């Protein structure tokens, strides 16, 4: 090809060769917004992410904070119920479904670490046990004080349209069974990863023991994929990055291709994840 990019058939052959060479037993898959892009979930930082409160426009980085929640909890809840509605209206795509097949084949040798809060991996068939949702899930809430075990948002809480108010009836439902106020079960920008709520240590432990790390649709902006990759690569795992655009993981994959343990599958999740899963399970 004119720009020296490998063709799809060349990439397929390289994938065969990498898997034949490395024969991975334990696989960690890290996913980001790119895997849900083809399900129609708008990107976090795109125009859809903006939110107007009164005469003021907020950026997602302002709304998704404990600081915002502590000063305007109803507005932050309203924004999350809107986002939950968008996620719930989307359907898992072939890449989500393929990862569920991989879990079915590998069982405990498979770990999925997702930054996505859209719940599409679970709806696509991956189990909660094998899916580490390091940034939370828009379908869950937890108490602000006391026991903070995540619980599903009650079915009676309606999805909210962009310009719709949050009704008092819905607000009253956003409490625990014993009446404590709740917040969305989301890791906010001014908060830290932790094991109890987000299983971040478990993600690193899985990376420690894997022979293959697959990264799909993430730019590497958040800390956890970066740390998971660092741990896996320190232990000499192979790395496959699936992404149409270059990113820190494609750079690692290209670098490790020299020792036969890296491959950048330049393309979409729906193009490459099913093929990778077929080859890993075939
Ligand atoms: N298939 C695979 N990858 C894709 C596709 C696709 N169809 N479309 C886009 N991508 C890639 C882009 O090239 C980009 O590298 O998905 C990536 C999306 O990057 P981000 O929008 O930064 O998403 P993500 O990496 O998940 O963001 C990390 O930052 O704001 C926080 O909490 C938020 O979880 C989010 C985190």
Automatic annotation (TrEMBL):
Keywords attached to this entry: Hydrolase, NAD, Transferase
Lineage: Bacteria, Pseudomonadati, Myxococcota, Polyangia, Nannocystales
Short name of one Pfam family: SIR2
Name listed for the protein in its UniProt record: protein acetyllysine N-acetyltransferase
UniProt key word NAD: yes
Domain Deacetylase sirtuin-type: 5-282
InterPro entries referenced in this protein's UniProt entry, alphabetically: DHS-like_NAD/FAD-binding_dom (IPR029035), NAD-dep_sirtuin_deacylases (IPR050134), Sirtuin (IPR003000), Sirtuin_cat_small_dom_sf (IPR026591), Ssirtuin_cat_dom (IPR026590)
Organism: Enhygromyxa salina
Gene3D superfamilies recorded: SIR2/SIRT2 'Small Domain, TPP-binding domain
Cited SUPFAM superfamilies: DHS-like NAD/FAD-binding domain
Enzyme Commission code: 2.3.1.286
Transmembrane region(s): none
Keyword NAD assigned: yes
GO molecular function terms noted in the UniProt entry: histone deacetylase activity, NAD-dependent; hydrolase activity; NAD+ binding
Enzyme class: transferase
């Amino acid at each position: 090809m004119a720009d020296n990019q490998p063709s799809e058939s060349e990439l397929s052959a390289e994938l065969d060769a990498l898997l034949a060479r490395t024969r991975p037993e334990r696989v960690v898959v890290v996913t980001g917004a790119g895997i849900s892009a083809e399900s129609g979930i708008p990107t976090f930082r795109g125009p859809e992410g903006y939110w107007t409160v009164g005469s003021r426009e907020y950026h997602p980085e302002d709304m998704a904070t404990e600081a915002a929640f502590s000063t305007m909890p109803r507005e932050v809840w309203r924004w999350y119920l809107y986002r939950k509605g968008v996620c719930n209206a989307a359907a898992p795509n072939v890449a989500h479904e393929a990862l569920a097949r991989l879990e079915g084949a590998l069982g405990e040798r498979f770990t999925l670490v997702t930054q996505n809060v859209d719940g599409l991996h679970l709806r696509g068939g991956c189990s909660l046990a094998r899916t580490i949702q390091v940034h939370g899930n828009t379908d869950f809430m937890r108490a602000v004080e006391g026991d903070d075990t995540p619980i599903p948002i009650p079915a009676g809480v309606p999805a909210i349209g962009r310009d719709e108010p949050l009704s008092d009836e819905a607000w009253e439902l956003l409490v625990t069974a014993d009446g404590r106020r709740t917040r969305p079960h989301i890791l906010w920008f001014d908060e830290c990863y932790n094991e109890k709520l987000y299983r971040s240590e478990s993600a690193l432990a899985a990376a420690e023991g894997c022979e293959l790390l697959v990264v799909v649709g993430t730019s590497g902006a958040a800390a956890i994929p970066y740390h998971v990759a660092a741990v896996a690569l320190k232990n000499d795992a192979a790395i496959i990055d699936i992404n149409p655009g270059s990113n820190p993981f494609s750079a690692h994959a290209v670098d490790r291709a020299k020792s036969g343990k890296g491959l950048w599958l330049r393309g979409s999740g729906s193009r490459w994840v099913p093929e990778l899963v077929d080859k890993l399970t075939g």
